[in-house]
Amino acid sequence: MALNKSMHPRNRYKDKPPDFAYLASKYPEFQQHVHTNLTGRVGLNFKDPEAVRALTCTLLKEDFGLTIEIPLERLIPTVPLRLNYIHWVEDLIGGAGDGAPRRGIDIGTGASCIYPLLGATMNGWFFLATEVDDICFNYAKKNVEQNGLSDLIKVVKVPQKTLLMDALKEESAMVYDFCMCNPPFFANQLEAKGVNSRNAHRPPPSSVNTGGVTEIMAEGGELEFVKRIIHDSLQLKKRLRWYSCMLGKKCSLTPLKEELRKQGVPKVTHTEFCQGRTMRWALAWSFYDDVTVPSPPSKKRKLEKVRKPLSFMVLQPTLKLLQAKVSETSSPAHSSVELITTWMEKTLTELRVLHKRVPSGTAELSLFLTAVENSWIHIRQRRRDHGRQLRELPRAPPDGGSAALQPAETAQPAQDADTHAAAQGSEVTESGEGAAESQGSEGKEGDSIPGQEHESGVAVSSTAPATQEAAPAAARPSSPGAAQHFLFKCLVKTQESEGDVSVEMHWVEGQNRDLMNQLCTYLKNTLHRQASSPP
Question: Where is the composition biased (Low complexity) (predicted)?
């Protein structure tokens, strides 16, 4: 449920996901589809259409008092995602009218008739629900009747390719407050199977794709389908206060907004629907000047979400070893926090990472870091290469030949990191579970270590900055704040924790978060190696 925190604020499942164990104990038909793993956690196989259908029917019964039937060969909706759309429509029409009952149109209502059922049950909305498929029409009508909502919902069978114009021909000139639509996302069978519509780097869908041909496919896919609705709206104009559609692909949003701009539509907005690992987008437009336009989601939503800092602990035995080594060469540090901070300052100086102390709390010390070059990667490899070069040099014969053949003693690099661990970022990650941070889907967008993409979508190799290591020292800025070109900036907090010392690295900005991961791993490994090495 990675995206649940980004659900609509009023969505009842935002902070309280469905309790599968409770639902299984109450509904025997749902219980047969749940399973319990070795840890005792109750789960559901979302690739099983029967299990998905059982969950949808159970949630509608438990939380909304609705009893519905859905054939397996037709689209099985997910309740939390549909609820997001309902709440957004509430936002769209909230300031419209004079308290009169709201009226809406659901284009292609499906067998479940879920939008009209939810809108009528929750808000008392009147619905005109259209459907072109015979099976879906029959089930939708049955679901409305068995829930006693025929006075609020009218299900009508319409010809193929009918959208708004034909559906409203026989209707009176009444004004509808809104229309909503879950259009067919795909243009052909290949797209429906994800063959040519899914980024090769994205994992496969985690749930089954159900639905009839008319529900999941249309000529030209969702882009052309929504353009047809836009064309109808240009003729109907103020017959509806708001026109809206859900989109399955983010790439459809920009061309549709551009189409509305070209047509001179005055009011346009959009939003995101998040549920589990799924994201959808929605577009709405209006020809009324007095409607209140909800603000689209912030472009910085991903940047603003709380990110866990990278961290590692320095335990008491390590602190004592490090303190003993420091005492041999200099005066002891006043505290364990001061000891670790001073050691990091020395190590960062050797790595040519810009740093300075910044004000912090009474029980902690903080450093602001700016990395302008990747100086911590492949140190061990370079040391091995250097040793190999020395071994390959000719040496003086045992009988005391020319001293010119004896290689001069060369200083070893100051640091020797486990660069394989640093390069892979496998010991310290943002989640603390040995995995690089992932973003969301359809968003969401995953990070990888080699050839990783930063947030602008430009590929950044974790080893690419090696070319910057040759930069002359004179060209490097003298302080963290003076750097105009940098790899990343972060804040390092060191504080005592029950006798141990905690080190946290908080991301500020930069190209690639994995570079900070590498540096964190390097610092951790180097500290423990120096503490445990013989004097």
Answer: 431-441, 461-480
Q: Using CA atoms, how far apart are residues 240 and 128, in angstroms rounded to an integer?
A: 13
Is 216 contained in some domain?
yes
Last residue of a domain, one of 264, 297, 330: 297
400 is known to lie in a ligand binding site: no
Q: Are 247 and 363 found together in one domain?
A: no
What are 263-298's pLDDT values in tens digits? 999 999 999 998 777 889 999 999 999 998 988 887
State both tokens at 499: 């006798």
Give the C-alpha distances (Å, rounded to integers) separating 133 from 77, 140, 147, 211. 16, 10, 21, 11
φ, ψ of residue 85 to 5 degrees: the values are -65, -45
Residues 339 and 461 grouped into a single domain: yes
- The alpha-helical segments, DSSP class H, found in 393-512 are 419-424
Element containing residue 126 per DSSP (H, E): strand 126-131
Does 108 carry a binding-site annotation?
A: yes
Please give, one letter per residue, the 3-state secondary structure of 440-457. CECECCECCCCCEECCCC
Q: What is the pLDDT of residues 310-337, one digit of tens each?
A: 999 999 888 888 888 877 666 666 788 9
What is the pTM for the complete model shown?
A: 0.55
- Residue 415 structure tokens: 């640091």
Q: How far apart are CA 535 and CA 531, in angstroms?
A: 9
- Among 321, 299, 371, CA closest to 519: 371
CB 176 within 8 A of CB 103: yes
**How would you class 153 by CB atoms within 10 Å of its CB: exposed for 0-12, middle for 13-18, buried for 19 or more?**
buried
- Residue 148 token pair: 């006693």
504 bridge partner residues: 311, 493
Candidates 279, 283, 239; CA nearest to 261 is: 283
| 432 assigned to a ligand binding site | no
Supply the DSSP symbol for 147.
Answer: T
Q: How many CA atoms lie within 13 A of 196 on its CB side?
A: 7
Q: Which domain holds residue 326?
A: 310-384+415-532
Domain identity same for 152 and 213: yes
Collapsing DSSP states into helix, strand and coil, what is residue 313? strand
Beta-bridge partners for 500? 497
Report residue 107: phi and psi, to 5°: -85, 115
Whether residue 361 is annotated as binding a ligand: the answer is no
CA distance 145 to 264: 41
* Distance between CA atoms of residues 348 and 322, nearest Å: 17
- Express each pLDDT in 15-53 by its tens digit: 888 999 999 999 999 999 998 877 778 888 888 999 999
| Helices 114-123 and 49-64: angle between axes, nearest 10 degrees | 20
